[in-house]
């Protein structure tokens, strides 16, 4: 009996804004960070920053490269204090269970802390082959390379799922396909041009994407 051909053997998931419905914290935490840095609210509101790529957002918030690690730690701590507001985006639990049952390797690569990721994932944590936390804000590329190498999977058989341009940039720098989600931080018009597939409008769309990809394999 001929086994069906699978297009993607390894899925790399971003956490904040992708698996976790944490975009709600954007409006809560960003104004405080901006005020601390002496950045006035944009005329179009804070949501205007979501139409920027990661580097443009850093410039708008007057965050220099050497300040990124400390600001990232600050945001991790602030998010931990509001963790009761964060949960898995609706629909992910069933999708992740289905993919795990099909034997698809899944890995989380996040800039957040291990404790936050573990608490939000809850029982779904056991569905992932590995979880890599505290990834540098613009440094997922090296982690992606290491994860792919350790998994023994060809780069062309890996799909990355994320909600920001930096996720797409890191993926493409490694020769990995990327698909964006429509419910995260970056606006759809920013993310779609960087995505190798149509943006996921809901977690259930990932199953359809993988089925379509398998037919092309």
From TrEMBL:
One of its GO terms (molecular function) is phosphoglycolate phosphatase activity. GO terms for biological process: DNA repair. GO terms for cellular component: cytosol. InterPro entries: HAD-like_hydrolase_sf (IPR050155), HAD-like_sf (IPR036412), HAD_2 (IPR041492), HAD_sf (IPR023214), PGP-like_dom2 (IPR023198). Signal peptide: none annotated. It comes from the Bacteria. This is HAD family hydrolase.
